[in-house]
Amino acid sequence: MTIEKLYDIYRKYPSVQTDTRKLKTGDLFFALKGPNFNGNQFAAAALEAGSAYAVVDEAPGTPNDRIIVVDDVLTTLQQLAKYHRQQFDIPFIAITGSNGKTTTKELVHAVLSAGFKTYTTQGNLNNHIGIPLTILSVREDAEMAVIEMGANHLREIASYCEYTLPTHGIITNCGKAHLEGFGSIEGVRKGKGELYDYLRAHNGTAFVMWDYEYLQTMSAGIPKVIKYGTTSSTEIQGTVKQSEPFLTVSISKGATLPAIQTQLVGAYNLPNVLVAVTAGKFFNVPDEKIKTAIEQYTPSNSRSQLIEKNGNKFILDAYNANPTSMKAAIENFAGIQAAGKVLMLGGMAELGQESQQEHEAIIELIKQHSWKAVVLVGGDFLKIDHPFVKLANATEAADWFKQQAFTDTYFLIKGSRSMAMERVLG
């Protein structure tokens, strides 16, 4: 079946699903395969559950008019997403980077939604499956689309651009993340920079954090560069007015905005706020609507959340961690004025040969400040001799926490996704 004919079916049944457990009547089921699963085996069950059609790459034993056989289901899903994307003549804004992608995506989406019908990535669906699903969720009434792109190896962002076809792009930063796949910080910049490469080759626009010299260099040659940052050489200039308990941002150039009082924890969120303001101004969203949208955004899913519970305060930033984000979170926490502060940090994943060295550097940073207690959990923290509490996993950390009976104490809870440090709070 051609993509054009499949697209005709998709237009009649525009809800796409890859998980039979989440199927609704009238969905299109794409039977994806992976190392530990084979969706082809569930095609018949999907049809019984109400799926309109099932797209498979293993022909069923019994022919069925509602089963569409293709060469490769994943490739077909991506091709269908590209074909759907090509039906739109609207801004598609791609966001990638080592840290802050999801927060930036949520803030930009909130601001643009104040002026336009805007679709965006749901949750963390930012990979080779999630991105085409996101594109296929964009409806005909769309005026904007904001697409998050994650990556842990070279050529990954380039492949996403082939079917996302972004018109605008944001690289939040390039830090020490996924070094196992990228090999080095230079590899990270090359991999994330594939977004800039696409914009450069396709007459695109980049929103660039001008404080980072490496992004200045990486963005050279892009037809249109919109600068934001803390210096006067930018279109949008802003600074941290206050960062405790929540970040307040002052805009001194490019927008007539009084202080923006966010619900985000940490001065390290300043660039995320500034790029949301920048995108809003670029697309002519009124200043007051920009301010309201940012102030009303509430972080969730363990990202820069401030939680008050049983007389204690918790900065829960446990969705992910790498050396760059861990350092920023610790330094921000060290600057908070509180009588008693406790660090509960999980190991950092996907750092390759540099992993133990990076964990040692975090321990040395911790030693530079005074803490009520420090708990280091799992990963390469277990391989290093240090004077702090050493625990194997988040379950042990939760048990330790319960035994302490803390009151009037401030906590930073952070770690890589695999550590699930949010379990500390139950």
From TrEMBL:
Keywords: ATP-binding, Cell cycle, Cell division, Cell shape, Cell wall biogenesis/degradation, Cytoplasm, Ligase, Nucleotide-binding, Peptidoglycan synthesis
Function statement: Involved in cell wall formation. Catalyzes the final step in the synthesis of UDP-N-acetylmuramoyl-pentapeptide, the precursor of murein.
InterPro entries to which the protein is assigned, alphabetical: Mur-like_cat_sf, Mur_ligase_C, Mur_ligase_C_dom_sf, Mur_ligase_cen, Mur_ligase_N, MurCDEF_CellWall_CoF430Synth, MurE/MurF_N, UDP-N-AcMur_synth
GO molecular function, one term: UDP-N-acetylmuramoylalanyl-D-glutamyl-2,6-diaminopimelate-D-alanyl-D-alanine ligase activity
Main location: cytoplasm
Pfam family, one: Mur_ligase_C
Protein name: UDP-N-acetylmuramoyl-tripeptide--D-alanyl-D-alanine ligase
Species this protein is from: Niastella populi
GO biological process: cell division; cell wall organization; peptidoglycan biosynthetic process; regulation of cell shape
Residue intervals of the Mur ligase C-terminal domain: 303-380
Gene this chain is encoded by: murF
Phylogenetic placement of the source organism: Bacteria, Pseudomonadati, Bacteroidota, Chitinophagia, Chitinophagales
Annotated ATP binding sites: G97, S98, N99, G100, K101, T102, T103
Intracellular or extracellular location(s): Cytoplasm
Enzyme Commission code: 6.3.2.10
Family in the record: Belongs to the MurCDEF family. MurF subfamily.
Catalytic reactions of this protein: D-alanyl-D-alanine + UDP-N-acetyl-alpha-D-muramoyl-L-alanyl-gamma-D-glutamyl-meso-2,6-diaminopimelate + ATP = UDP-N-acetyl-alpha-D-muramoyl-L-alanyl-gamma-D-glutamyl-meso-2,6-diaminopimeloyl-D-alanyl-D-alanine + ADP + phosphate + H(+)
Domain Mur ligase central span(s) in chain numbering: 95-279
